[in-house]
Every structure is written in C-alpha cells, then in structure tokens.
Amino acid sequence: MTALPPVPATEGLGEGKLAALAGMPDPTGASFAERFEQDLTERFASRHAVAVSSGTTALHAALSAVGIGPGDEVLVPALTVVMTAAPLAQLGATPVFVDSNPDTLDLDYDDAAAKMTARTKAIVPVHLWGRMGDPVGLRSFAAQHGLAVVEDAAQAAGSSRGGVPAGAVGEAGCFSMKDGKILWSGEGGYVLTDGSALAAHVRAFRGHWLTPPPGGRPQERLAVNGRLAEPLAALAQANLRRFPDLLERRRTQTGYLLQALAGVRGLTPLTPAKDEAWNHYAPLLHISLPEPRAFAEHLARQGVPSSTGTFRLVPCDTRPMFSADNRTPCRGAAQILDRTLALVLTERDNETVLDRYATVLTQEAAAWRP
Hints:
Elements: H1 13-22, H2 31-44, E1 48-52, H3 55-65, E2 73-77, H4 82-90, E3 94-98, H5 109-114, E4 120-123, H6 135-145, E5 148-152, E6 160-161, E7 164-165, E8 172-176, E9 189-193, H7 196-206, H8 230-241, H9 243-260, E10 267-269, E11 276-277, E12 284-287, H10 292-301, H11 320-323, H12 331-339, E13 340-342, H13 351-367
Parallel strand pairs: 2-3, 2-4, 4-5, 5-8
Antiparallel strand pairs: 1-9, 6-7, 6-11, 8-9, 10-12, 12-13
C-alpha cells in the first residue's frame, strides 16, 4: 500500500498571521488580502481573484454580479447543501432544484430543461466532494438557454475535467476556505473570474459598495460586509504556498483508504470519469447494504465521519425552507445521497487514523444487519 507523504510543513503558517496582527488595528488594511488575491490568479491561471469572508459570500457576490435579483429563478442541483441556495433568497431570487444522474453525479439536463421558465436567469453547478460534471455539456446547455453559469466549487480546488479547471467553466467560480477544505484559512472564500466587470462588482459588493466599480458612486446601492480579515488572508496565503503538497496528500489519503477497503462487503469505490482529474476531496463509496443511510449514521457513531452519517446531508429540495416550492422530488439526488458514503478527511489524518477507519468499516460492513 502506498505510504502517505508527510504532512506539509506548517512552520510558516504563523509568521504571516503575526505580521498581519502587528499591523492592526487598521480599518483600511488589505495588503495581505491583496497579495493573496494576486497569488490566487497565478496559481489558478485566472485573470481576477477576489478574496471574501466565506464561500457563501462568494456565491452571494458572484450571483449579484451576473444580475440575479428579485423575481429571478436560478437552477440549482438538489445534490447540494443549504449554503448554495441561501444567497438566492438573500437576493430575492428563487432556487429551482434540479435532479442529478445517479450514474454520473452530473446534472440531469432533461429535468433542468423541463423546469426552465421565462424567469430562469442562471445555473449554479455544484462540484460536490470535488467531483465535476461535464463542462462541455454545461456550457452547451447554458448557451442554448441564455443562462449565466456561477460555479459552486467550494470543495473542488484542484479538480478539473477535460482540461477545464473547477471554477473556470462559466462566468465565475466560487470557493470556500472553511476549515477542512484542502486550501483552508479557518473561514474565508474567493471568487475566480476572467471578467473585469464581474470582479469589480464582487469587490464593491463585499465592502458595502464603498469602492464602486468604475463609473459608479460609493454606496449607491446596498451590499454586504464580506471582506476577508487580514490574519485569515495571511493564513490563506501561507496555505496557498503549500497547496500542491496539500493536494497531493489528500489524493494519497483517499487512494490509501480506498485501497484498504477493496473487496469490503457492500462498499464499492465510485470511479471518476476518464477525463476527470479529481482532487480526491473525499473517499467515495457506493453502499449496496440494506438501509445504507442508517449504516452511514451507525459508522459516525463509531467515529468514522461522513457527509450523510455525521452531517445528515439530504437533498436541498427537501429542506423545510424550500420544500413547499419544489413539489417534484429530485429522486436521483436522494438516491445518490442515500447510497454514497462520502468520508470526511483532513490533512492531519495519518496512516493510523485511516487504518482505524478501514478496520471499522470492514468489521461493521461484515456485521451489518439492520
């Protein structure tokens, strides 16, 4: 079995934070955030990067920038978390939940087309667990229907498909740096875009419109406080320097665990598409055991964390705040979540942790009789 690479060196993580703290208080301070944004453009080959306070703020600002507002409808996969849809409610728009294909995890475009109306203005693909749908199909669908594409790439830093990086499929890519992401800063996020006007809008939106886009007037519209704090920007910048090593470690961790689980009763690894360079954000296994969601919840009680077992992830169209407006259940999304074990990893998980997960999974799968 392949040995894990060492945890990427952490010695430099505190230096930038201390330097940022030394410059506080400074109500106008943004030097670390600006340097982090420049580094992002170089790392991910994007013309513009805008650092914000969270992945949710990234979506909120980017959706505002493509013109989403009251009365608009936006197509959103039911295979996602509440945080993808929440910014739409804040903008006065309506999320219209679309089903997913259980065989590919990609959007069900027939379902998406059936749910289009004259009010549909955009589509938000979600790269859950770092997995990407087909960018060619997405771009074709969006172009055919005149839709803006704003990617929820919160978990997909480092993934690509058909040579297209996550975050570069449409007008904007929105990323999270919540603790646990491969590129993390505790809290934070960023927007990647090649559009100068879109980037200017996002910058204005994250700071109460105090610095408007070219030709605008300060505070001529309401916006949010969504700036990335300087100490977090310094931490994000330090982790961005470690990103290749962090990415390689996550890929090796996932491969190590999936190899250890080969042949385990009722658990089959999900295989990425041939043209998909997956970041291996989470080890993914199809559960063919009876009552698979109950099995994931049982594993969580045994100390093996997962999306459904630990965080009780369900299709977003079934959440109480949305279910009244979405009367056609997204059954493919429900099937995916009920039968997918998406294990939760962090960079600290070494061979001892992963071996324990593998032992528990092997024993509990063999004994599972709900």
